[in-house]
Amino acid sequence: TGAISSLQRQMEIQESELRRIRSEKELLQKQLREREAQLQAVSDKFFSLTEEQRQEEITVMMEEENHNLRQVVAEQESQLAEQSKLISELQGTISQLRAEAVSTRLHLLKHRQAQKEIQSQAEALQHKELQTRVALERISSKFERYRNKIIQATFSVEGSQDPQTELTDDEVLEAMQKIINERMEFQQKLKIKGSK
């Protein structure tokens, strides 16, 4: 948005410069019309002189006016050429600034679209994380129930004592392994004696 505002300010400056040049061009044209009016006034004055005086005065004045007019025309043509060149450059700059503004807007639209996609992905990940936590809590609950059943089965055997402190998983496994070994030894002894 800042880039677009900057481009718009540059366009406004260039357009203001273009208006100033056009205003100067109109002023030069107005001055030329005023000179033509002055020439017409001089011509009207010469009609009141004698024919000979008129011819002499006309000749001198026409030569002087022609010289002045040629200078004015040359200056105006030069200024108009410079102004036309500057106008063309300004129009090119304005076109470039407009193209940059369009490109910046497209870039912003793409950036906003990318932000929406990232937001959507983040929401999907949060939903998946929530589902994973729920599943983990269920598994943990099942594991805890299974562990309690193991402890209950392990320490409900005749001759075993209830634990006095919280058991670790390794201690539970060790107690189970001890019972399994004792039962296997007992089974082995029964086989040796031939008992079913």
Automatic annotation (TrEMBL):
Q: Which residues form a coiled coil?
A: 4-131
Q: Which UniProt keywords apply?
A: Coiled coil
* Record InterPro entries: CC-FHA_domain (IPR052642)
User: Per the record's keyword annotation, is Coiled coil included, yes or no?
Assistant: yes
Has the keyword Coiled coil been applied to this entry?
A: yes
Q: What is this protein called?
A: CCD27 protein
- Origin organism is Sitta europaea
- Name the gene: Ccdc27
